[in-house]
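User: I'm writing a short report section on ligand binding and want a predicted complex to refer to. Could you take this sequence and uracil and write out the structure as tokens? A short remark afterwards would be nice.
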Amino acid sequence: MSNVHASEHPLVKHKLTRLRDKRTEPKKFRELVREMTGLLAYEATADLATTPRPIETPLAPYQGVELKEKIGLVPILRAGLGMVEGIWELMPSAEVWHIGLYRDEKTLKPVQYYNKLPVEPTVSVCLILDPMLATGGSAVATTDILKHWGVRKIKFVGLIGAPEGIAAMQKAHPDVPIYLAAIDDHLNEKGYILPGLGDAGDRQFGTG
Ligand code: PRP
Ligand code: URA
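Assistant: Sure. The structure tokens for the complex follow:
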């Protein structure tokens, strides 16, 4: 599992515990999702390419750098939406391309309902954002869409992954690194991650 990264950062672990807690209300839940995503994005973007950028400080010339590649954030609706702001604060010029998928309750297969990607890719690196990697169906489908769009460098950033979902992603897309706050035990009979945090969309948006 060399390209699967579960954060060891104490801040991430602390916040994840608050997030899992069933007493955490939607307002706090959204705040935690945003904060944790920023911390995970910091880890997930450590290898982004840079290009030289000479500037002048008030005192001297300086050989600086800037990010080389155009970055796209790809939240999977709905639950991925709450992860956007946490990264956008760090990379305000990133483009955001939404993909709408929901899991069919019976088959657990993803059903696409929103995709407005233009014909030609406008970014060269994509970060897929979704708090939950359960069966992996949604992450695999979104990666398929982005590869078909023409993007070669893709990373998945999530909060909790199940072994089943990680295995599915690694089988379908072994080139896509996975960044998580935690890897949990297994899925229950309804495809929910245990111990998990419940339904990430419902808990953010106060539904369900
Ligand atoms: C949840 C979650 C992922 C998906 C994960 O979304 O946000 O997108 O399930 O499950 P998978 O790995 O088995 O595909 P859901 O379908 O509940 O939609 P929502 O975000 O609109 O609530
Ligand atoms: N989607 C969620 O929101 N939670 C899970 O545990 C699995 C899928």
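A remark for your report: The radius of gyration is 17 Å. The mean pLDDT is 97.
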